[in-house]
Structure formats: C-alpha cells, structure tokens
Amino acid sequence: MTNRNFFKTLFNTFAEIISAQDAELSHLYMDLCFDVVCIYQKTFGSMPKFKDDPVWMERQVESLTKLIKPFANNKNLSEKQIHRLKDDFLAT
C-alpha cells in the first residue's frame, strides 16, 4: 500500500462509511485523522513509505494495541511501565 492509497482509504473510504451513519461524526473523524497526521509529521517527520516496509502498518497497530490495552482494562500503570510502552512504540 502506498502512502497515497493509505490516505485515500483513511480520508475517503472510512469517512464515507461513517458518513452513511452520521455526517457530523464523519467530519469529526476526518478532523481527528488530519490532526493525528499533522502531529505525527511535526514530531517524527514524514511517514515511512509503505513500499519500503510493507508491514510497517501492522507493526504500528500491534504497538498501539499493546499501548492501549492496559488503559482499556482500567489498570493504573507505573511511570516505568509508561516509559517502557512509549519506548517500545517509538522503536517500531
């Protein structure tokens, strides 16, 4: 998947699916996606090219799942755990 296809899917396909249920929610979704992309680029620079690393997206999703799962279970994390999760996420 190229970056162009990724953004097309993110901003067109998913937004259309959400819009079929609720137009305002679709607009919020697009705003949040845009914010995330801008913050990512400001913090980390340009996104890696998917053609250079076709499994990058899968690794990022796995890292996010690992990062978010403890919060979903309402567990309190120690500072050490938080730093380890951040380091793991940024290393992928």
Commentary on this structure:
This protein has one domain (about 5-90). Helix content is about 75%, strand content about 0%. The protein has four helices and no strands. The model has no long low-confidence stretch (mean pLDDT about 75).
Order of helices and strands: HHHH
Strand content: under 5%
Q: How many helices in DSSP terms?
A: 4
Instruction: Kindly provide the radius of gyration, computed on alpha-carbon positions and rounded to a whole number of angstroms.
Output: 15 Å
Query: In angstroms, what separates the terminal alpha carbons?
Result: 18 Å
- Sheet with most strands: none
**Structural class of the secondary structure composition?**
mainly alpha
Mean pLDDT: 77
Helix percentage: over 70%
Low-confidence stretches: none
Question: Any idea how many domains?
Answer: 1
Topology, number of strands: 0
| Principal-axes shape call | globular
Which characteristics define this entry?
mainly alpha, 92 residues, 0% strand
Question: Secondary-structure map with pairings?
Answer:
Blueprint: H1 3-19, H2 23-44, H3 56-72, H4 79-91
Helix pairs in contact: 1-2, 3-4
Summarize it.
By secondary structure, the protein is mainly alpha-helical. The chain has helices at 3-19, 23-44, 56-72, 79-91.
